[in-house]
Design goal:
By secondary structure, the protein is of the alpha/beta class. The protein folds into two domains: 45-179, no CATH class; 189-490, Metallo-dependent phosphatases (Purple Acid Phosphatase, chain A, domain 2, 4-Layer Sandwich). It contains 13 helices and 25 strands. The strands form five sheets. Strands 9, 10, 11, 12, 22, 23, 24 and 25 form an eight-stranded mixed β-sheet that branches. Strands 1, 2, 3, 5, 6 and 8 form a six-stranded mixed β-sheet that branches. The protein has a six-stranded mixed β-sheet with strand order 14-15-18-19-21-20, covered by helices on one side. β24 and β25 (475-476) form a beta hairpin. The radius of gyration is 33 Å and the shape is elongated.
Length: 494
């Protein structure tokens, strides 16, 4: 009996050992075959050769030896000339744009592929990220596409892709904070067009009658461009009245339709002719602007109103717009309408207050006029900033020294030069946007300053020349003539 009992125990132990061996063998065998458990091979990170050194450094700081992945991941980068439709496992990582010297007349880069642009960079231009875009360098278009006008082209769009079977669960939590970025787009960039002298008067009154009273006629070729900005400005020098005729600087009341056609948002009243038609016309004009939701700067129904700065707070950008009449007459000193008279102490204090608020400060000045329009040939005299009475260069630069970021002359009937100065930029004169001065080539031209602001920073000002002829229909100057004309202005900068 004892022997049988011992045999049963022995058989049981043998069976138990065999079971354990078989179970362990099966357990580890399955793990070996399926590469799980003890035999699991960690996911491997594969870095494609398309990644640059900075990207590799960032990625390796994320995928350290301490990070164990369940599945392999392959990381690569691609460049394109159009904003890609990114999938879940792709990130738009960088937007690169070509920039060149502020004073260059070049406007465009031609390329069939991103590599052509990258290869040619550092020759006539350099590539910078849009975060580093600054108005002191000139942004170039790519294949005639200007990035700040459409945001879907005009740049090199660099995308990082993570190929993994477990992107959502495993990779995204690791990389999302570093690779999910916001770039400038139409909803976040404030666009602001600043234009020069508008005087819808004299010969334009006669022309209005000849075209059947349709004042939008004069804006036909420029309205689509100007109305496309968030804000559009002009310096209107004539008031609306029923007494307007072909000889006075007064505007037929129908000319309000010219201004609304270009999408006017801000009218500057620093000009010296707004009182030519009398106080009542000036007051009626202010009322008409208000009825059309057009903001006023640099003038008003009283001296107190005229002196009020215009504060712009849109799309996370704060701009203080100051405008003064320095010397040309037409200012108000009391309860009558007129332009905002310039006083140095007032300007200094207003600029200081605006800068303390953190605003970008634009100062417009109605300065002395250059009147070297004595012939019908191209007279470049007024191109220069020192071509009118007084020390225009010193006066405008002093406003930058006070803290202004941009100073713009709005009295010049012929465009003048421009320059970077200190921490700001000066445009000495913008010329005529709308007027009847068709006798001299210089007075038929103007400069539109197309500003682009992002989070309070001026990314860029694109200078766009315009011209009109005997039709008095303003249009954008053709590319070849624009280059010639801007080069002429640039060459005589102070």
């Amino acid at each position: 009996m004892a022997r049988k009992k011992r045999n049963r125990v022995k058989y049981f132990l043998v069976a138990l050992i065999l079971f354990v061996v078989m179970f362990v063998g099966a357990f580890f065998g399955i793990q070996f075959v399926t590469k799980t458990g003890f035999f699991k091979i960690p996911g491997v990170v594969y870095y494609d050769e398309s990644l640059n050194d900075d990207e590799l450094q960032l990625l390796k700081s994320i995928f350290t030896e301490e990070v164990e992945l369940d599945k392999d991941v392959t990381i690569s980068a691609t460049n394109s000339l159009a904003r890609p439709e990114a999938t879940e496992n792709e990130y738009l990582y960088e937007v690169l744009v070509p920039v060149t010297d502020f004073y260059s007349t070049e406007t465009n880069v031609i390329a069939e592929a991103p590599d052509e642009i990258i290869k040619n960079a550092d020759s006539n231009y350099e590539l910078v990220g849009v975060d580093d875009l600054d108005f002191k360098k000139k942004l170039l278009s790519i294949n005639n596409q200007y990035y700040l006008d459409n945001f879907d082209s005009g740049a090199i769009f660099r995308t990082i892709k993570f190929d993994s079977e477990k992107f959502t669960d495993e990779i995204k939590p690791l990389v999302n904070d570093s690779f999910s970025k916001n770039f400038p787009d139409k909803s976040s960039v404030l666009t602001f067009a600043q234009t020069g002298v508008t005087a819808l008067s004299r010969g334009m009154n006669s022309k209005l009658i000849s075209v059947g009273g349709d004042a939008t006629y004069f804006a036909t070729n420029i309205k689509d461009y100007l109305s496309g900005f968030d804000l559009t400005h002009t310096s209107n020098e004539s008031s609306f009245t029923t007494f307007a005729n072909g000889d006075n600087i007064c505007s037929d009341t129908r000319f309000i339709n010219t201004l609304t056609a270009i999408g006017l948002d801000i009218v500057e009243l620093t000009g010296n002719h707004n009182e030519d038609c009398g106080d009542d016309a000036a007051r009626d004009s202010i009322k008409l602007y208000n009825e059309n939701n057009i903001k006023i700067v640099g003038g008003g129904a009283t001296a107190e109103e005229a002196a009020k700065p215009l504060e712009i707070k849109e799309k996370n950008s704060n701009i203080t717009f100051l405008a003064y009449n320095q010397s040309t007459g037409g200012a108000t000193y009391d309860a009558t309408p007129g332009a905002n008279q310039y006083y140095e102490e007032n300007a200094r204090e207003e600029i200081k207050k605006a800068k303390e608020r953190g605003d970008f400060v634009v100062v417009d000045i109605q300065y002395y006029e250059c009147s070297a329009y004595a012939s019908e040939y191209e007279d470049p005299t007024c191109d220069r900033a020192d071509s009118s009475a007084g020390d225009q260069v010193g006066f405008f630069r002093q406003l930058i020294d006070f803290g202004a970021d941009m100073v713009v002359g709005t009295s010049a009937h012929q465009p003048q030069t421009f320059e970077l100065y200190g921490n700001g930029v000066i445009y000495y004169g913008l010329g005529n946007l709308f007027f009847d001065q068709i006798w001299w080539p210089g007075t038929t031209r103007s400069l539109i300053l197309s500003h682009y602001f992002y989070n309070g920073k001026l990314l860029q000002t694109k200078v766009v020349p315009t011209v009109y002829d005997s039709s008095m229909q303003t249009k954008i100057l053709d590319e070849e003539t624009s280059k010639w004309f801007l080069g002429r202005l640039i060459n005589v900068r102070p």
